Amino acid sequence: MLETLNSAALALMIGVGHRVKLFDVMARIHPATSEQIAQATRLDERYVREWLGAMAAGGIVEYYPANETYYLPSEHAASLTRAAAPVNVASTMQFISLVGAVEDQVVECFLKGGAPPYSSHPRFREALAGESDTRVAPALVDSILPLVPGLAEAICTPSDL
After folding, report:
1. Are the CB atoms for 139 and 86 separated by under 8 Å?
2. DSSP letter string, 48-73
3. CA-based angle 100:23:46, to the nearest 5?
4. Using CA atoms, how far apart are residues 96 and 128, in angstroms rounded to an integer?
5. Helices assigned H by DSSP within the chain
6. Which residue, among 93, 123, 117, has the nearest Cα to 105 in the 3D structure?
């Protein structure tokens, strides 16, 4: 159960790293200190340092104690950055906090029935749109529409293809 708890906390931190673009910046720089990463991302150093600690403890980033630097290995960046779309799993992690935000309402539904209103998920549309842009749309254009000859050309603009 402790492993489940630790994994859930790590998933939440991965979602945070995605939202504030820490993975994207770290994929472009050499090993750097928390101060350098905070400066490159224009984020608060204390929070960057604590986030880096969670990422290092979770094996997501490497930490080099001799010079207090952190590094995002390319094999991890391959599934955590926006450039990794459509296999960016970091973007999917943000759904955990979205579900957690309505936990009280879900518990209430267990007791009384019903469902939380869609308005209970203020960031859901934003997160879902990001997923659609990086996963659904490319699969649709690259794999599904070509199954019907001429369909892609008939419904997509040239920039979509």
Report:
1. yes
2. HHHHHHHHHHTTSSEEETTTTEEE--
3. 75
4. 13
5. 2-19, 22-28, 34-41, 45-57, 74-77, 89-100, 103-112, 124-131, 137-139, 151-155
6. 117
Find where tokens 């001799």 sit: 66
Question: ∠ CA(47), CA(58), CA(1), 5° rounding?
Answer: 110
Spell out the domains of the chain, with CATH numbers in brackets.
2-77 (1.10.10.10), 101-155 (no CATH)
Task: Report pTM.
Answer: 0.76
Six-digit token pair at 137? 């749309």
> What does the pLDDT look like over 112-149, one tens digit per residue?
999 888 787 777 677 666 666 666 666 666 777 788 88
**In sequence order, which residues have a C-beta less than 8 Å from that of residue 78 and are 6 or more positions away?**
84, 87
Tokens at 80, concatenated: 């955590």
Report how far residue 139's alpha carbon sits from residue 157's, in angstroms, rounded to the nearest whole number: 16
Residue 120 token pair = 């209970």
DSSP character at residue 148: S
pLDDT value, residue 58: 97
